[in-house]
Amino acid sequence: MTEPFTKRLAGSGLIASLQPDAWRPGSWILSIDDTPQSHIDLADPTALHFDYIARMGHIIDAAFPAGAAITALHLGAGGLSLPRYVSATRSGSRQQVVEIERDLIDFVREHCPLPRSASIRCRYGDARDVMEALPKGLLGQVDLVVVDVFHGARTPAHVTSVEFYTAVKALLTPTGVVVANVTDGPPMAFARGQLATIRFVFGDAFAIAEQGVVNGKRFGNVVIAAKCDGNVPAWVSTLAGKGPHPTALIAGPEAQAWSASAAIVTDNTATPSPPPARNLFRS
Asked: Collapsing DSSP states into helix, strand and coil, what is residue 155?
């Protein structure tokens, strides 16, 4: 079996590793600070193996016509799994990735190269700073913004607020979509606050996750999404059936009820996402 590759990231000092997937030849798992971040299937970039990435893929597929090229902004790089997916399923898409750790992208691209045909531009720096400094010509022109920003196992506070999501909304087309990856555990206060915040900015939003995570039984990922026009489209009801299972879909009145007890997050009140238990990802 191929030995893993490791690299200490210059910016954070955290250790990034690429471990071959023993069950899927040609696939790799990217971990940072012992936290799995991405699954990269070089043989088939349309195969999204991590649950939350698969849920994001389902949302993208439902939100835009099949095969149609889109303009996408990815805040947070990881293993570039979702940019690879969009490139493979939507030829001609224009994508930009923002990542604070330049050497993380270099590390991933060295061992898991991007397809030559992919139109993916990488920008380096803090996700919010770079996003807010993008050319003004992009305002109102982006179809998809993916928010998947982590420092180790935690989402930094400054990319969780009303002010942050207001800047995201300004980039989107009137029918554009924001998709955010949130991690939380019992009692799910952080995830509820993020749903409340995104609903406040966009007018409405929905969340989807593994059933046990939503029920507060375990730590995990919650995917939250919204359309720029504030409508929750009819296709949202189809997402629960697409898996991975068991799936919980929180939309409509349930989204309002699930987030009702949470305070809307502002720059003045924002905190990082809670850390998982140190042994969560260790056997």
From this structure: coil
